[in-house]
Amino acid sequence: MDLRLTPDMESFRDEVRGFLVAHQDRYAPGAGADRPREAAMEWQALLIDNGYAARTIPQAYGGYGAQPDILKSRIIAEEFTAAGAPRGFANQGISMLVPTLLEVGSEEQKTRWISPTLRGETVWCQGYSEPGAGSDLANLQTKAVEDGEDFLISGQKIWTSTAAQADMIFCLVRTEPQAPKHDGISYILFPMTTPGIEVRPLKTMTGSAEFNEVFFTDVRVPQSAVVGGRGRGWFVANATLKHERGMLGDPNATEARFAALIDLMKSETVDGQRLIDNPVMADRLMALQARLMTMKFNGLRTLTASMTGESAGMAGMVVKLQGCELNHQIAALAIDALGELGVLYEDGPHLRAKGSWQRNYMFDLGLIIGGGTAQIQKNIISERGLGLPREPKLAVV
Amino acid sequence: MDFSLTEDQRMMQESLSRTLAEAASLDRVRKFAGDPTDRGADVWAALTDFGLPGIVISEEYGGLGLTLLDAALMSEALGRAVAPVPFMGTVLAPLALRLAGSAEQQSKWLPKLASGEVTAAVAISEAVAGARDGAGVTASGGKLSGKALFVPGGLGADLLIVADTGGALHLVEGGAAGLTREIMTGIDLTRRMAELTFDKVAAEPLTGGKDVLARLRDAGWVLLAADTLGACDVMIEKAVAYAKERKQFGRVIGSFQAVKHLCAEMAAELEPCRSLVWYAGYAFDAAPDESSLVAAHAKAHLSEVSRFIARTSTEVHGGMGITDLLGLHFWFKRVGLNRQLLGGPERVRALAAQMQGLTA
Ligand SMILES: Cc1cc2nc3c(=O)[nH]c(=O)nc-3n(C[C@H](O)[C@H](O)[C@H](O)COP(=O)(O)OP(=O)(O)OC[C@H]3O[C@@H](n4cnc5c(N)ncnc54)[C@H](O)[C@@H]3O)c2cc1C
User: Fold this and answer.
1) What pTM did the predictor assign?
2) Of B221, B257, B251, whose CA–CA distance to B338 is shortest?
3) Average pLDDT per run of 10 along chain B, which is 360 residues long?
4) Does some domain include residue A177?
5) How far apart are the first and last CA of chain A?
6) What are A274's strand-pairing partners?
7) Does A160 sit in the ligand 1 pocket, CB within 6 Å?
8) What's A218's domain CATH number?
9) Nearest chain B Cα distance for residue A298, angstroms
10) Is the ipTM of this complex over 0.85?
């Protein structure tokens, strides 16, 4: 164990700091669920041009083209967190589609889609889940029937985040109905403006429509839009699902949120007493800080493993489960610290932080479910991590 | 940047585990637990051959000259084996001498401690965890009076490091006149504690005040957290192994999701703790500014996680978990004692908040 950085890395850190200070006035929050605004797109472009976003993506596809260097990526993440600087776009197109295309896309698909996705010009949605295929994703039924050079796609997706804003969808469809359920799926890209697509917003408990239902009726899509080969969709999707899970437990984001919670507890008072001076509250805060530390050092450990090409094993498997839960707990403590103020939601003189704690508290519950529920994560940990037997299959009745 | 153990560290930990598997088998532990007069001399002898007593003592005095992280890795192995040895004094007494002892005191004691010829214990419970039942030691004119409770390894130690109520440290020889020791039997029969009574006992002062005490406390927290980590590992392993073999309703119970998820929750809670314990050990020597805070969090958090694991592992074992037969209770009780020694989680977290200036 030696956590010192080489002088090279220290000077890289200085470089990142220098960049952040020099461009302070241009910070623009990265688009999450929304279509990015102009300032966000400019910030994103600046990040890409300087190698702070899309760092290792080849220049030919609109990235910065640096050699992968996990430590440098880490330093960037740390410095951006410390400066409170937005990290650029973190949407499903960037976190899931781009790695998928890099891994298995055709040359034409890479050239066509990666650059505009990175720059926020093309917004994607992820069409995996269906009403009858959530945790049991391989059970999906949306069918794609051959029609000459094309497929005709019919069926329904659900929980599709950003479908209402998206230009394009990366979608799992069943192309081989006779094949066993994992083998009959294809991964396909098409515009959301294709005739036959209907998007119906689904309001969530946060009050906004973060996801949607999407209906397909004979949507005509060229067969050439399949990524990674017909019938290979399950493997293609799985190759990138791990990226989504890693992102969902990122301790850097959690650290920033924890710092905000400390500030909140120092500034909020009840009967003139700061919340931080309430021993019960301080105790809960410290208990969460310990958890945060475990996840942060766990992150350094998995980082070391990936630098040496080893598998992080159990340390990697627990990130989504523990990280998402911790985020939710931090928001929960903030709400308790706010007390009655913590239930306000509409804009008004008493609302704190624009209601973001309240929104996080609800939205994080969604993240515990999305990308593989806590129970599914526990199945993975117990079966792949601890070697416990799978549940016996039900006899078909 | 390298957040992993070195090959040497891994080998040394494995090798200690092998030594313990022979010298402190579960049968041996059981025998120790059943006999209050057993001082575990044979176990200590095996550990002395291994070099454990000199782990943090510099080579100049015949020790191995290793870091607190190394000591924590040893502590983890001792926890895994529920080894019947008090390790805390082995590390904290030499640290106290290094930080606050005179050249004379160092050359008198360190070689003997390193060779295992003498053993040491530290009596700092009142100063760190708070005084109970009117305990507390006061110093006056080079003599100590009062009581110190909950001293692991204090019964047989040849050398005692004692904190007084003002936080100053003193060195007391085991045979000093006016010192009486009594056994304090707790739930954890793998380690016995002492109640020390001082009646104008001659003591040598150590230099340094509360800052040295704080270093000892931090090191103690890390060692306890590491011991707990080792014990937790075993409790999970035992639960998983049992779940793979015990059958009910015609299936192994490990194929029931309710049981699988209990096991997954234990693993998911513990795995990130390993990283925290490593970092806390590392920080003690390499990042002293952060060391107290991470040590506090390691101590408090491992206490919480271990309580969950001790309970859950026992439940996965069903009725067998409660029996003496299986011996799972040795680990259950081990983490139970570690939780309270040198302060329970709430007290330690309150200190953690103070250290950061968050609370007064
Ligand atoms: C905020 C949010 C955004 C999302 N965005 C998208 C998106 O953009 N695109 C997309 O395709 N999908 C998206 N999803 C869908 C998400 O992937 C699914 O909700 C998730 O996989 C769970 O499926 P389900 O909702 O059908 O729940 P179900 O599978 O019906 O699960 C219900 C309950 O049963 C439990 N359960 C199910 N199977 C098992 C099992 N084998 N063992 C134990 N317990 C089990 C679950 O853990 C859960 O508690 C999103 C979801 C959320 C909440």
Assistant:
1) 0.93
2) B221
3) 94 97 97 92 95 97 97 98 94 97 96 96 97 96 97 95 96 97 94 96 89 97 98 98 97 96 98 98 95 98 98 97 93 97 98 96
4) yes
5) 56
6) A269
7) yes
8) 2.40.110.10
9) 5
10) yes
